[in-house]
Amino acid sequence: MSLKTWYIATRPWSLVMTFVSTCLAGILAYASGSFSIPIFMLTMIGLLIAHTAANMANDWYDVRNGVDENAPTAKYRPHPLLFGEVDKATYKKVVFAVYGVGILIGLYLTMLRGLPVLIFTALGVLFGVFYTADPIKLKYLAVGEISVFLAFGPLMVGGAYYALTGTFSWDPMFASIPIGLLVALVLLANNIRDKDFDASVGISTIMTSKNVSQGITYYKCLLASAYVATLVLIYTGTLSVFSIITFLTLKEALGILKTFDNEVPLTSDQITAQLALHFGVLLTVGEFIGIVIGSLL
Fold first, then answer.
1. For residues 114-142, average pLDDT
2. What is the CA radius of gyration of the chain?
């Protein structure tokens, strides 16, 4: 088993959203006057490790439950565990080890900042594990979109902000809403494409009892809500006015909607994830510009 195979097994392309969310928390922490580069780096590493462990755990349970076989995603996404490129026993041990490292980092940050870090860490681990693990299996209960919104939005940004500052604030949790909505949109795109397959293997998503047309309507509403939420957060002062640069992604968003109106492509989640990444990067850049301009005035 090559190192490259193990690298692919972690689904590294998905980690960019964790990177963006943590950077947003870091910028907001810096704006509050409380920022430490070593703690920021440790928080970033811990969250990336936790996300990696969750990815691997989700693939483990999906393969064990037989829901990844013949899935549309497997037609274009590398899946070493499904295709027998990694030893299952070793894979399971690696998942435990990766989670262990992430939890140790969480415990260390708890010692530095206090019990709330442990609470955020525990919630993150629970969402990550029980997304596909028995007995809860959130993915199978039509609450997947809500779960990833909370995990990659308020919990991740709010938790990272607390780890960096040692103080709780609603502002970073509210500021994370557009990013959380777009990550949820990635899952919705996946569920629209996979609705018939999911129903055939006993997975219940928001789409399994709906038609594609209804799904696209949901997609449009959720997409629009990310932009509307950004405007509201700018108006209330939670986000910098420079975060308006996220609207540079509107052309890309409208292009996706045009594509979906014709046909939901096999890579629907991939192209939505690219939009979420571009939006998240611009949101972070906008907040950074706001801090720089504010320090000069």
1. 86
2. 19
- Band of pLDDT at residue 224, cut at 50, 70 and 90: very high
**What value does the mean pLDDT take over residues 151-176?**
95
pTM above 0.85, yes or no: yes
Examine the pLDDT at 297 and tell me if it is beyond 80. no
Domain boundaries, the chain: 3-296
Looking at 3.30.200, 1.10.10, 1.10.600, 1.20.120, the CATH number of the domain 3-296 comes to: 1.10.600
Per-residue pLDDT at 8: 84
Report yes or no: 275 and 183 within 8 Å, Cβ to Cβ.
Answer: no
